[in-house]
Amino acid sequence: MTFKHIVTDIESIAPLSNTPYMIQQIYSCGTQNIDIVKLVRTIEKDAALTANILKMINAPIYGFSKKIASVSQAVTLFGTDMIYGLVLRYATQEQLKAETDIYGIDSKTFNDICQLQSTLMLQWYSKIDLRHAQFMAPLALIMESGKLVLASEVMKSSYVKEFTLGYAKTKNVVEFEYELLGTTTYYISGMLFEHWNLEPLYVEILKGLDFERSDSQKVESYINSLHVIRTAVNLKQILTKSSIEEAAKFVDEIGLDAEHFKKVAKRVREQYNQILINRMKKSTTGTQI
């Protein structure tokens, strides 16, 4: 298993299916030029995509008190940027069927992590720069896609046990991935999105997260905010006390309000803890029945 194998694997991944591809074309001229009516109609023509978007958007982590029942309502409440992320999340799940067990978590927890990363980005950065938050929240939702590519590659290899044990022991996932492959799964995500001809700026941000840093101050701010999110919420630590503190230190280093970040992160953690409690109650009730 090498980086070359993964590159070959990505190149063999099928293009986006018909509806996500059509939606990608709608977004190709920029989110400021989106024909919202056309977007809604395109999504609604695909029953599976519609159901999936409504399921994701009604997830408890987003905290809506009333159920969102239509795509048009979802676009109004979340905006076109977030809908783009949800469509790409659906497309990624359809194309990459890899299991997440090698990371020591089930698929539900993996999905929780992706949603928490997006939620934290949106809630934290909205008071700093709303446009930045709206643009980055969808990327935070899908930035872990490279881990599904890696999982698929590992499962086809003879390194499953070695990888699983190594991953369980490591304290620094980025360093572990780099030692194993000479790259990271965030860079792999960038390669995947490049293969699918997705938002070029997303590709640049993901490739720059660990390696190809940009000279652009704007791109650098995007990269910094994404690093904060992945530090606070990741497959090893889901908004733990230590991961929030570590992320807050970096927030302070880049000249932002660390206390504000910690306040938001702790609020999101409390929301998630309540979701887990409710799930457990439902599971227990179901067992009793």
Annotate the secondary structure layout.
Elements (H helix, E strand, L loop, with lengths): L2 H10 L5 H10 L8 H9 L2 H11 L13 H25 L11 H19 L4 H13 L2 H11 L4 H10 L3 H9 L3 H11 L4 H9 L8 H16 L8 H13 L4 H31 L1
Task: Summarize this entry quickly.
It is built from 15 helices and no strands. By secondary structure, the protein is mainly alpha-helical.
Mean pLDDT: 88
- Determine Rg (CA atoms, Å): 19 Å
| Relevant CATH superfamily | Hypothetical protein af1432
Total count of domains: 1
Briefly note the structural class of the backbone: mainly alpha
Largest sheet: none
- Helix and strand element order: HHHHHHHHHHHHHHH
Strand content: under 5%
Give the end-to-end Cα distance, rounded to a whole number of Å.
47 Å
Shape: globular
How helical, in percent, are the residues? over 70%
Quick one: how many beta strands? Answer: 0
Unreliable segments of 5+ consecutive residues = none
Say what the CATH topology is: Hypothetical protein af1432
The CATH class assignment is: Mainly Alpha
Q: What's the CATH architecture? A: Orthogonal Bundle
- Number of continuous helical runs: 15
